[in-house]
Design brief:
Largest sheet: 7 strands, parallel
Helix content: 25-40%
Number of strands: 13
Radius of gyration: 21 Å
Order of helices and strands: EHEHEHEHEHEHEHEHEEHEHEEHHH
Length: 367
């Protein structure tokens, strides 16, 4: 048994759900994998040029395991246009033939992690192969205009064509159940080996540290964060991660923007936090999000202070979770979070129950 996986992120990016899925598949089956890096599925804009001039995201070493082959389809950034698949297919032919030859070697699964015309082509070509769509985001919400309309249409066709849909959040599960009979809720998870490798740090008690680890983009709620910083002027707010959406105006002095670092180093930095933050806006973009950082914060013993968005809205009563309904709740929730006292046994149990292996095993995809 082997796998063709169409990823929404490159293999060289820091390890995320797609990386963990293919690792799990190989561990469970021993089969080979073709990983297909993403290509542009919308029209470029000025932010793409600006982003290319920012520091590139810290990635994992580009080591490809001997059981995997990484392909990157060449394409023109015209996918929203009708007929774009006919034009780009001329560029895709070499990669498509490699995938076809691969599929003839053994029973093959097709897993789609991002909707695209390339994915539609493979669904036609590999129509004899079982296929799963891993819906891990509300992808159209990242786009606008014609790009959004085109992606929505293609995503719906993909969802109707596959055998199984994985939904990473309750909102996505509700959405896809309207058009498919086999939708399985598969939350995000954590890498237990990475969690165990993080060494304990000595955390200062005179100044409390509220910290955030992750990308800062248009879903980040700077107003909420400023409210927290102004309410806790004697404490510190640390943000670790690339910034693609800068705040308007000057930040309070106790907000510290730290350099991006490799994921393991970043998780070690979390041990210096007293409270883990997830300050996301509540909108269509975040309504379907199940943040991985929630699992990592809690597995490392941190209380989590979050806005009321996506899957976090279902965790109001979860151990160590403090959800604010509005900026008016920030002061009280910050104090409640600081008073939380967990223990190592609970942290270990949480980590073991929320690994990627547990997630994908529970989905019962493989026979």
């Amino acid at each position: 048994m082997q796998l063709v996986y169409l990823s929404p992120v490159t293999w060289g990016s820091f390890a995320q759900r797609p990386h963990k899925f293919v690792e799990w598949f190989h561990d469970r089956t021993g089969g080979s994998v073709i990983w297909v890096d993403p290509y542009p599925t919308r029209f470029p804009n000025w932010k793409d040029w600006r982003r290319s001039n920012l520091t590139a995201p810290i990635s994992q070493p580009g080591v490809v395991p001997n059981w995997m082959r990484v392909l990157r389809p060449d394409s023109l950034p015209i996918e929203p246009l009708p007929g774009s698949g006919w034009i780009n297919r001329q560029l895709w032919e070499p990669k498509l033939h490699q995938i076809i030859d691969f599929s003839l070697q053994s029973d093959t699964w097709l897993a789609i992690g991002k909707p695209s015309v390339f994915a539609l082509e493979l669904l036609k070509i590999l129509c004899h192969c079982p296929a799963v769509y891993d819906a891990m985001d509300e992808f159209p919400a990242f786009y606008s205009g014609l790009s959004r309309l085109a992606l929505t249409k293609r995503e719906n066709v993909i969802a109707e064509s596959v055998d199984t849909i994985f939904a990473s959040s309750s909102k996505l599960k509700q959405k896809w159940e309207q058009i498919h009979k086999d939708v399985r809720l598969v939350h995000n998870g954590l890498d237990l080996s990475v969690i165990k490798s993080v060494k304990d740090k000595v955390v200062s008690n005179d100044k409390k540290v509220f910290g955030y680890l992750g990308t800062i983009a248009k879903w980040f709620d700077w107003d909420w964060l400023n409210t927290l910083a102004k309410a806790r002027r004697n404490d510190e707010i640390r943000l670790i991660g690339p910034i693609f959406d800068k705040p308007i105006g000057k930040l309070p002095n106790n907000i510290k923007l730290l350099e991006e670092c490799h994921h393991r180093a970043a998780l070690s930095a979390i041990k210096n936090f007293h409270v883990g933050l997830i300050p996301f806006k509540t909108n269509s973009l975040t309504a379907s999000v199940d943040p991985i950082k929630y699992y990592e914060y809690r597995a490392l013993g941190l209380p989590v202070m979050s806005t009321n968005f996506g899957e976090m809205s279902f965790r109001k009563n979860a151990l160590g979770v403090f959800i604010t309904q509005s900026e008016r709740d920030v002061v009280a929730m910050a104090e409640d979070a600081l008073q939380f006292k967990g223990n190592a046994e609970e942290d270990q149990s949480f980590a073991e129950q929320n690994t990627w292996r547990v997630r994908f095993d529970a989905a019962k995809l493989l026979p």
